[in-house]
Amino acid sequence: MSVNSPKKAPCIAVLGTGSDVGKSIVTTALCRLFANQGIRVAPYKAQNMSNNSGVTPEGLERVRAQIVQAEAAKIPPHVDMYPILLKPTSDIGSQVVLLGKALENSTASDYHTKKERLFATAAAALDRLRCEYDLVVMEGAGSCAEVNLMPHDIVNFRRAEYADAPVILVADIHRGGVFAQIVGTLNCLEEAHRNQIKGFIVNRFRGDISLFEDGIRWIETKTRKNVFGVLPWYNHIRIDPEDSVVIESPQKVFIENTDIPAVAVIRMPHISNFTDFDPLIALDGLDLFFLEKVQALSSFKAVILPGSKNTCFDLQWIKSCGWLEKLTNYVANGGHVLGICGGYQMMGNYVHDPDGLEGKPGTTGGLDLLPVETVLKAPKTTTLTRFSREDVHGTGYEIHMGQTRRHDGEPFFKIVERNGTACEDTDGCVTPDLRIMGTYIHGLFENPTIARLWLNSIGLADVPTSELEGLAAKDKEYDLLAEYFETHIDVKKIVAIVQGSEFRG
């Protein structure tokens, strides 16, 4: 990334009263709104914890939320927009990805000791963005009022203070207690940080919004700050969610009596890249279920094993909780199974971890659904990938540790390009009857022609697919989001609080 000007662009920070309150969607909306006004805007989040990632044009790992925000800003994603990525591997440990490259696995306590060094790295990334763009929209993480974390904060008020950024505080009325969220957050903050907050956005309102007018007046009187607006609940706009919090409460489902065909995704403890399936969710005439509780699978047209950040652990989980028996019976009775990335690795005969990348070194027996075996090895593969099958072409990305060797069967795809370099390679494995498939490629279903090919293979030729693919399909949604946001939020007030509101360019 080049640096064109010594002058640093202004920043505005979007912080939240908690996790999953709507910070990412507000940041995305602001990026598209400013971009539509001809302002060169960039998103930024100093630290993100997510197993939902992608790949930059340079072949570096990236966070899906900031990919979305970069797309909304009409710019290519860059690792400076999300310098620190934590990918949870257990309840107390994560893989640390620094500027797009896997650095190490770290426990929470070990990571804590490195925060000051990482703060400087993240600050340098922000400085580079501020020299390149006209405006930076910064996103916080979790609650901005975690008093035990504030002294070593990387991503919330300490970062906003570093950038001298005015703050918008987002609260979620859907979960209840929105008044306590806002006032409680303010009461936990130092006076300087309270003063940095210029106003609030209330997200996910259901019902007659006129009944909340007294609530708005109460908030403004109590806090002496603006409520910039209230975002009603919507379900007509499809934006990739940031993380799997959206599927954290899967329920056992019974669909035997429905006429709508359904596909099941096994919701493993360390599921990653769950947005692979958003294009399927969006299809009319198809239901998609994330299943955690063990149940019979006979009613489903296909079962998908998704990516995992801890393949060996999730493989053992499948065996121990009863899913292996259900999968085996499903396949024996003619069922279709697709494995993606970690799910593909699990479907083989063995997963070898000689270096203990996911825990104690050793070998874990696979599900024996495909004639392949995997060796987990560094370095991590991160590629943008072009591929084809049956003269149908698609684009996607790969993020995985190790390699998988095929002993029998046929490759799933021909690989024609990785990170912009032409190649002749293959990926994945399929059985001769095309019922069992595995691949390392994420983003398959963002290609309507590939989605069509797969739907045909599982007997769903009648389910219509989108005519738009990739960014073209997403662009429509970003514009819808910006329009919706501008309808309900006083954008002029937000623009007015941005320091240096006379944008360059």
Explain the overall architecture.
By secondary structure, the chain is of the alpha/beta class. It has two domains: 11-238, P-loop containing nucleotide triphosphate hydrolases (Rossmann fold, 3-Layer(aba) Sandwich); 249-457, 3-Layer(aba) Sandwich (Rossmann fold), CATH 3.40.50.880. It contains 15 helices and 26 strands. The strands form six sheets. Strands 2-9-1-10-11-12 form a six-stranded parallel sheet, with helices on both faces. Strands 15-13-16-18-26-25 form a six-stranded mixed sheet. Helix 1 runs parallel beside helix 2, helix 1 crosses helix 14 (470-488) and helix 6 (178-188) packs parallel to helix 8. The longest helix has 19 residues, at 470-488. The two termini are 18 Å apart. The model is unreliable at 1-5, 244-254 and 501-505 (pLDDT under 50).
State the name of the first-level CATH class of the largest domain. Answer: Alpha Beta
Structural class: alpha/beta
Number of helices: 15
Placed side by side, the strands forming the largest sheet appear as 2-9-1-10-11-12
- How many strand segments? 26
CATH architecture annotation name of the largest domain? 3-Layer(aba) Sandwich
Gross morphology: globular
Share of helix among residues?
A: 25-40%
What integer value in Å does the Rg equal?
23 Å
* Main beta-sheet strand count, sense and barrel state: 6 strands, parallel
Low-confidence segments, given as residue ranges, are 1-5, 244-254, 501-505
The count of domains is 2
